[in-house]
Specification:
Layout lengths: L12 H10 L2 H15 L3 E5 L2 E6 L5 H4 L8 E3 L20 E3 H13 L2 H9 L9 E6 L1 H16 L7 E5 L5 E2 H9 L6 E6 L4 H4 L4 H21 L7 H24 L16 E2 L3 E6 L2 E5 L2 H10 L8 H11 L3 H14 L11 H12 L7 H48 L4 H7 L3 H22 L11 H25 L6 H5 L2 H18 L18 H16 L6 H16 L13 H16 L6 H8 L5
Parallel strand pairs: 2-5, 5-6, 6-8, 8-10
Antiparallel strand pairs: 1-2, 3-4, 7-9, 10-11
């Protein structure tokens, strides 16, 4: 089968879960979360060179209840700017998180020594840099998730923190998932979920549908955790849990049916839960465990793992109560299963691919014969394989297109050194056929990539991968000047490239770069000491052309053009000061030098003593330095 060549990365979820359960880190994380429950605040302990930061379970209704919104959601950015606006979706919408969890985290930030302690572990000057693992059970898991995001987002350390949660409710929406994927942070989060634990699924339902039963159940859970002793729930609590289960299942089914693109109606009102899984989910059952990373597949498994054919409904209700506070038993079962080994599901399967999927489903307690689960995992595998093939295809084509880039770089050098003219001006006056052919081939290649990206035929984080950002930026800075030259030659100077002629491919790859630059700039970057080999603003020559046209209008008495010309002068000054402009711009016959001579002449005719920062730069030729 074609899928087989790509299946190892997808079907190893069971092996990853077995390793995590057997290595001891999950048991230690759960132990630390229990300690935090005793302290009723966060705890920080070092164990074998690792700092464990744990948060209590926060099993009080106030932590879940948010009156301002139907699902408790709200913008992650607050007035105290704990989180910056880097946490937003690909559509620039700010990430939404559960406000109850956010307020708990902010309280710890503001009312405890948490920030001071974290400074010790994240400031390289303190010489105490150690791996940090944030852990939490129940709502404490959402606080651990936000704490991890805080450290990651602030870039407080060179090595990334890790987050482990147990029975943790969902905390953020699709925009948060996109932000985490964009930064490659998903690998920093592991959420352990027991098969029938109701809490991880709970926020898929509106709060009004879960409030009443939750009020009855929370004291029961609190009592067991506080006394470290289990006791049988009475009929009132069991009835409340049955109601909670029914309501949550109703909404998990709705969310998995409609997907993330339809959570709001036409008026922008939230009609379905906005929350989406972020990171890796380790689903556990008495049969073992398996890890799943795909956010939409995790959502489906939230629903499907609750629909067990093996137990009576009353037993599932009981499991919903017990499993949320029994992760020690859950881990024990997983470890025992990993040691003893389990039977191979569907040994007669015709492919290792299908067998791998069956084993994962069996490990998380979903029968391998369950068609919906089989189909969900198969679709995810097909999409992953499709992405892999498409990325491999465009990567090969990219390497093949490098000869076109090299030819255009040679063309640029020949124009400058051989003819003493910029390659932009040379191409505008006479369209070199070889250079034009290379330009068109590269345009076709990048148009194809943008089309595939817009049709979601490439991975969700494709536009955030350095390889493609760097390749797109190099292409745009070298080739867009030729596209600008072609535009103005064909339009005879009448059109405006910036507003009417710029191809979508340049706009898109520039946006990719700008999104990445926002995160790079927050880490601090040293300035240039030499002029760039290629002008960093690939639209520079379009600005020059518009300035030349406005110069003519100004000379004809249209004095309203003066302000925009002064703005252009400032723009050029900044490029020079930032060393973001290339040396060829200052060649004697360039379009820019033509503009400069006319601008200087006009200004001196109006103001004989005129001077400006750009005037000083040009007169002293300080740009050479």
């Amino acid at each position: 089968m074609e899928a087989e060549s790509f299946t190892p990365q997808f079907t190893d979820g069971q092996e990853i879960a077995t390793f995590l359960a057997s290595c001891g880190i999950l048991s230690k994380a759960l132990e630390e979360s229990r300690l935090a429950n005793i302290l009723e605040t966060y705890s920080l302990n070092e164990y074998e060179g690792v700092a464990f930061v744990a948060f209590p379970s926060f099993l009080k209704i106030e932590g879940f209840q948010v009156k301002e919104s139907k699902y408790g959601e709200g913008i992650i950015q607050t007035d105290n700017k704990v989180f910056s606006d880097c946490l937003k979706g690909n559509d620039a919408q700010p990430a939404l998180v559960h406000q109850g969890a956010l307020q708990l985290f902010l309280h710890i930030m503001e009312k405890t020594d948490f920030q001071a302690k974290m400074q010790i572990y994240t400031d390289s000057k303190q010489r105490k840099l150690k791996p940090i693992i944030f852990v939490g059970h129940s709502l404490g898991g959402t606080v651990a998730t936000l704490a991890t995001l805080w450290v990651l987002e602030k870039r407080l350390r060179q090595s990334s923190p890790f987050c482990i949660t147990f029975g943790c409710p969902l905390v953020g929406d699709a925009s948060l998932v996109e932000a985490v994927d964009r930064e490659n942070w998903a690998v920093n989060f592991l959420h352990v979920v027991s098969k029938h634990d109701i809490v991880p699924r709970m926020l898929l339902a509106p709060f009004e549908s879960i409030a009443e039963p939750l009020i009855a159940i929370l004291p029961y859970w609190q009592g067991i955790i506080a006394n470290d002793k289990k006791y049988k729930p009475d009929s009132l609590i069991q009835g409340a849990c049955g109601t909670l289960l029914n309501n949550v299942l109703q909404y998990t089914s709705t969310v998995t049916t409609y997907g993330p693109d339809s959570v709001r109606d036409s008026d922008g009102v939230m009609k379905r839960s906005p929350y989406r899984p972020v990171g890796t989910y380790m689903f556990c059952s008495s049969e073992g465990a398996a890890c799943i990373e795909n956010s939409e597949i995790v959502l489906k498994m939230f629903h499907l793992t609750m629909l067990s054919n093996e137990k009576p409904y009353d037993n599932i209700v009981q499991d919903c109560l017990s499993e949320h506070i029994s992760y020690d038993s859950v881990l024990k079962h997983v470890i025992e299963k990993s040691v003893s080994g389990g039977r191979i599901a569907k040994p007669d399967s015709e492919s290792f691919y299908k067998m791998g999927i069956s084993l994962q489903l069996e490990a998380i307690g979903v029968g391998a014969e369950y068609d919906h689960a089989q189909i969900a995992l198969q679709i995810a595998a097909i999409m992953e394989n499709k992405y892999s093939r498409n990325v491999a295809k465009v990567a090969i084509e990219l390497s093949e297109k490098q000869c076109n880039m090299a030819e255009l770089e040679w063309y640029k050098e020949r124009c400058e050194k051989g003819d003493g003219i910029t390659y932009y001006d040379s191409f505008k006056k006479h369209e070199d056929s070889n250079a034009n052919g290379r330009r068109l081939k590269l345009a076709e290649f990048w148009d194809e990539i943008i089309e595939m990206w817009e049709k979601h035929e490439l991975p969700g984080d494709f536009q955030f991968q350095n390889k493609w950002i760097n390749a797109g930026t190099a292409y745009r800075r070298l080739v867009e000047p030729l596209d600008i030259a072609h535009y103005y030659r064909m339009s005879d100077g009448k059109g405006n490239y910036l507003s009417d002629g710029r191809p979508n491919r340049h706009k898109v790859v520039q946006k990719w770069m700008e999104e990445k630059e926002k995160t790079r700039s927050s880490r601090g970057r040293s300035g240039r000491t030499k002029l760039a080999s290629l002008t960093q603003d690939s639209c520079f020559w379009a600005h020059v052309e518009e300035a030349l046209k406005e110069m003519k209008n100004l000379e004809q008495g249209q004095h309203q053009k003066l302000e925009s010309l002064e703005m252009f002068e400032g723009y050029v000054t900044r490029l020079i000061n930032d060393r973001s402009i290339s040396l060829d711009v200052f060649l004697e016959g360039s379009s820019f030098m033509e503009w400069w001579k006319e601008w200087k002449k006009y200004k001196q005719s109006q103001f004989p003593e005129w001077t400006s920062p750009l005037y000083e730069i040009m007169e002293t030729e300080s740009w050479k330095g």
